[in-house]
Specification:
Number of strands: 13
Distance between the termini: 51 Å
Helix content: 25-40%
Number of helices: 10
Strand content: 25-35%
Strand order of the largest sheet: 8-9-10-7-11-12-13
Largest sheet: 7 strands, mixed
Order of helices and strands: EHEHEHEHEHEHEHEEEEEEHHH
Radius of gyration: 19 Å
Structural class: alpha/beta
Length: about 300
């Protein structure tokens, strides 16, 4: 692996642009190439950052050391597998795939080749900055709300794989318990799929978690309340209102930390440290991405069962 890692981004959309700019600006990396089926889009992103544009995936992969997959979710698995088979460590934007078999194939291929795979559940960085992972108690209940107005982005997947999966991953990362039941109801709207969903998930230690996600709301809302045996933590991630009645010291000014201010940079830097052998793992591993996907698919199954 070269001293300066040559970064490549698959997908020249909004998230691809964010990742391309990280490779162009982070120490020890440079943005070398952007792949998109639309060569003009790839050129518009790569050119100003000093990179080369490709519409041929194999040619793209031959020019880079590390790859970010930031294409629509339905392409994540195939493109991540292509990168791994070319010997490239991969950062895959969430979700890791759209079927559990895809996630299993990515994990197996990475294991065979000894390559790092990171998954872009970047909001783990916020929980780290807040100190939530250091609370030595299992949560008793959790309520998460994630609402946004209609958008043309990510309409290839349901609101569960688009928005709710963030909070599913956060719940799984807070608790070592296993989910055992999932009940859900939702609304099919402008995308032709599930654009709003509410799920209640029970874990084998008694934790009950409720998730409310919508991409058909009038405005943005992003809150979470977690009850522990010793108290509660309640956060409004938009207004930064913070309430902690547990005896554990948390950081109410988490949003002022460098990592929380730039969650993507912190997540990509952790991936690159793992690639260089400077850290044992990225912030979110492929196995953890698969676990979040598994739970999201269980919610989708519950939605379909209730139609």
């Amino acid at each position: 692996m070269s001293a300066t890692l040559r970064g490549g981004v698959i997908g020249a959309g909004v998230f691809g642009g964010h990742h391309a700019r990280k490779y162009a600006s982070l120490p020890g990396t440079r943005l070398t190439a952007v792949y998109d089926a639309d060569l003009g889009r790839a050129e518009a992103l790569a050119g100003p950052l000093g990179g080369q544009a490709f519409a041929d995936l194999d040619a793209f992969l031959a020019t880079v050391d590390v790859v970010t997959v930031a294409s629509p979710a339905t392409f994540h698995a195939a493109q991540a597998l292509a990168a791994l088979r070319a010997g490239k460590p991969v950062y895959v934007e969430k979700p890791i795939g759209v079927a559990l078999g895809e996630a299993d194939e990515i994990i197996a291929e990475a294991d065979r080749r000894g390559l790092v795979v990171a998954i872009g559940h970047q909001q783990r960085v916020v929980f780290q900055a807040m100190g939530l992972f250091d609370i030595p108690e299992q949560p008793l209940s959790l309520e998460a709300v994630r609402h946004g107005p209609p958008s043309e982005r990510s309409l290839d997947v349901s609101v569960v794989l688009d928005l709710m999966i963030h909070d599913l991953d956060l719940a799984l990362s807070l608790s070592g318990a296993q989910p055992v039941t999932a009940e859900a109801e939702g609304v099919i709207d402008f995308s032709g799929g599930w654009d709003a969903a509410r799920a209640e998930i029970t874990f084998d230690d008694g934790l009950v978690a409720v998730f409310d996600a919508s991409r058909r709301a009038e405005g943005f809302k992003r809150t979470m309340r977690i009850a522990y045996p010793s108290g509660e933590v309640e956060v409004d991630f938009l207004t930064h209102a913070f309430r902690n009645t547990t005896p554990y010291a948390l950081n109410p000014d988490y949003d002022d930390t460098p990592a929380a201010k730039d969650q993507l940079a912190a997540s990509v830097e952790a991936f690159l440290r793992a690639v260089r052998g400077e850290a044992p793992r990225p912030i979110v591993t492929a196995g953890e991405g698969a676990r979040a996907l598994d739970l999201a698919l269980a919610v989708e199954q519950a939605l379909e069962a209730g139609r």
